[in-house]
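Human:
I keep going back and forth on a fold encoding question. Comparing notes only helps if you start from a blank page. Show me how you would write down a chain together with its backbone fold. Write it directly below this note and I will take it from there.

Assistant:
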Amino acid sequence: MYAPFEQSFLLSRTRWSVVSRGKAGCDPDPGRAPLIDCINKHIESELGCSVPTLKGSWSAGVEPCVADEEYGRFYKVGRNLTYSGETDVIRMVGCRPSCTFNEYAASPRHQLQRGSKPILENQKANSLLLHFWFRSGRYLEKREYVVYDINSFIADIGRYLGLLLGHSIYSILCSFDGIWSHTQCLKSMQK
């Protein structure tokens, strides 16, 4: 009897805290309901009934779906959500995702190899055994925050003009006024 092929993966978790940007940004409130609950409510409102396979469905006051055409509408609404981009889904359901989320990655620990012995009695000769493991519950946390906003940008432009060129906004306006006056004077001399 052949031993199965074995592959081990190390699962790592990264916890992200990002800054909300624009209208389709994220929701900074960590205590709000998950986005999936909002999507389920959107589906129920589109159908007019609740689908028992949805997590958190069977909402109070919403009858369960029983007719074939209701499930056909469920298929169309689900397909529409599946093939839409993130911004479109957020616009359709009216809720934003959380600004704090987890990202998981799996990295192989060694090359795929044939195991030394069968682990289970009923394993086939050409089977694949996968091992997934976490490293002691530690995780990487990445936080995003605003370092440089538009006010700082305008202040830096003014600072550099004053420091490096010896100009201020007032002196630049005076220069434009002088150029404007000079061009008006030249136009009047040509007439």
Remarks:
- The mean pLDDT is 75.
- Residues 150-190 form one domain.
